[in-house]
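#struct-pred

JT: dropping the chains for the assembly here, can someone run the whole complex?
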Amino acid sequence: MSSTPRFLQGTYPFTGAGLEKGVPLEGLTGFRVPDGYRAQPVYFRGGNPTGELVVVALLRDGVAVRLFPIGARDAVHVPLSIVEDVEAPSTLELQVMAPEGLTGCVVVDLGLVEV
Amino acid sequence: MVVGNGMAGIRAVEELLDRGGAEQFDITVFGDEPYGNYNRIMLSHVLSGEETEEAIFLNALPWYAQNSIDLRAGVRVDRIDRFAKVVHDADGGRTPYDTLLLATGSTPFFPTMEGLDLDGVFTFRTLDDARSLLTSAKTHRRAVVIGGGLLGLEAAHGLATHGLQVDLVHSPAHLMNQQLGPEAGRVLRRKIEELGIRVHTGVRTRGLRGTGRVEGVELPDGTVLEADFVVIAAGIRPNVDVAVRSGLEVERGVVVDDRMRTSHPDVYAVGECVQHRGQTYGLVAPLWDQAGVLADHLTGARPDAEYHGTRTSTKLKVAGVDVVAMGLPGPERDDDEFVVFSEPHRGVYLNVVVREGRLVGATLLGDVRKTAFLTQAFDQGLPLPEERTSLLFDLGSPDEATSVAELSDDVQVCNCNGVTKGRIVDAVAGGCTSITAVMGKTKAGKGCGSCKPLVEQITEWAAGGDLTVDESVGWYVPGVPLAKPELMAAIRERGLKSVSAVFRELAPGGVEDAKSKMGLTSLLRMMWPEGIEEERDGRYINDRVHANIQRDGTFSVVPQMKGGVTTPEQLRKIADVADKYDVGMVKVTGGQRIDLLGVAKEDLPKVWADLGMPSGYAYGKSFRTVKTCVGSEFCRFGLDDSTQLGIDLETRYQGIETPAKLKLGVVGCPRNCAEAYVKDIGVVAVGAGKWEVYVGGAAGATVRKGDLLATVGSAQEVLTLTGRFIQFYREWGNWLERTYEFVPRLGIERVRKVLVDDSDGLAAGLDERVQAAVDNYRDPWQEGTAPVTTGQFRPALPLGMPAVRS
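RK: done, full complex below.
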């Protein structure tokens, strides 16, 4: 097996800091590409049970590379059919951008492969 | 990386190579079947015995090597890891790729029924299927074919030609219901029944009966058709196993866009495994379009190339009946015009469907003369003549030649090999003025053969009546349009010293021709005895490894044994080598030498090193040997020392390249113990120090007594005259023309005048040039210790080699 599937997934609480400002998802650690490997995001699924639009951002070494807006009480599935390699030792993480003061949780499922 | 070694995959590779893809890609091809690439359409001809297996190969194994394609024949691909860009094969190998092409074709469809697991149930899809059917046909009497489509009819016809009683069961109401309407199907049925095949239409099969082995096919009404074996030919389905396992988007077939891309980047697909715009195809014509688009796209030759689907028209010969079908088999709307002509007794059925002045369907059965015009009208939506019957008959409408002229260049003439009218016209413009030359160059007409008359018409038309039988007859080699004297003059004038230089300067368009390389190498080596720029691919395999390739791929090694004379020491050495390398056979040859048969290619250098003897040239288009009798020393009748003269001749002229092989004989008296009268050059002692020199004899496939060239007074004169003749033959003989053809062609009187009487003042020059060849002789066996090219002594065929693991 040359490619190994990896996932960043779960339901995580957050407190919004404005739609322009990302906040970490409490309890979700990022994915650090191990030495000698590279990674590709394959898909993103997200669910937003709150009553406001939120945006989940995919960050690579702290820089947002993809934004996934999720409407109120809505879900998205984005197949990332255009992928770029993420080389070691980069770190991929997810943050959420939500209206200031909004509290709630999001469901995220980021599918990766490690090659 | 190409997954699939069938017609689609390899056509795509050919298109890539055509566009210079060899420089951009290192190509690896995986194929399930352990063969090169063959024409699946022609399997029915193999089954019926009209063609041999060899004849249906489009590209045999050497083609892959010549194009530096790494063929993994007989290796099944399990799965593509599209993220790691690695292919996993069934042998456990992993091969990385940059760009992958899926061309997995289709697999036979099995309708649900009982008994499919019984012995004696076959499909008809691969060469191995055809072989098993042939084997069964030899030992059995009764066969049932399930499926009355194209494949089923072909299988039934093939089996019937072997004298079997064949029943054909087809569940729709008429034969070839995919392509033909009911009436055409009935006419076809008549023709098929005339072949002795029993046809059952509108009948589903309830199941196969038998225990262990199939014994019969049960129909719904309870009747059982007895069968020794059963062929299932109920259609095909795209083979999408690999694509599904690899996570590609698959519906009925592998989903591709207009550039043949699948749902995953860098993975493409073409052929019958593909679903394009919702459509899957089971015919070859779309392959050619798809392969062209793919190659345009991948090589960047035409980055905006797109495939928009193919309007399929079927043109084929099924069970000996010509069938052309395009578009609708019959009218669909109330105002569709429908012209029908039916003559069941003659097996002719013709119809056209016209909608709003455009041809939307046509069926031709048994009489396909109007194919060219109708195909074009269908493909391009041309306006039609008001009088619709002229669509089917030549009623004062243009004759065949004119309608050929009206065909547009992109009309596909040969569906089997994807050849358009334009390609044929180009071939004629490029110098092919005979039908065989056009067919050889374009492959048109080399499939099912149904298009041959059209190919001939177009060729005749394009050549403007200047059709020749085959003008290349006069050329020295097929790839350079020059006769030998002009070719030699041009080579000398320009100082060309390599085969590729000759192609570059003298071939039309500078195109290299593989079939011409050996002849040119021989010619150049003759013209430049001091040496030419060696190009190893310019030689026969025998000349590359200096041994004679045998039918099983091993080689035979023949050490030199001048005049058939050997020593105990040589014999001992030969015996030791034979033991050490476990040669299959040690044989005294007709040329008085010892042949070690069954030596593996990679052992050749070691065998030669251990032998430490010069080569006997048993393999070359060159001077080979001089057979002698025992001559004066031991023989009671011997008039002169033939043995010594034979040794002297061989010592002097050993290894010299000639247009074809050269075998000599010297005998000490006219009793002819060494058969000198039937040698290319034969020398006979006639007493008092005189020798007769004969030339142009043969005792092979042709038997001919040599012509007396001269009677000379000394052995020295024999040596001179022999050399002069050899050089004359080298300079004037055609490539592969044996002396028994060469001498009669010129006439012995003419040869005698030139060589003996020196009528043309050539003798001194010939003597001088043959001396130069003798002076520049080098023993090729030395190459065994230091191979000239890597791989010179490695097995060439990929079969049986361990798969490369990455």
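JT: nice. Residues 4-114 of chain A form a domain with the Jelly Rolls fold (CATH 2.60.120). Chain A has a mean pLDDT of 90.
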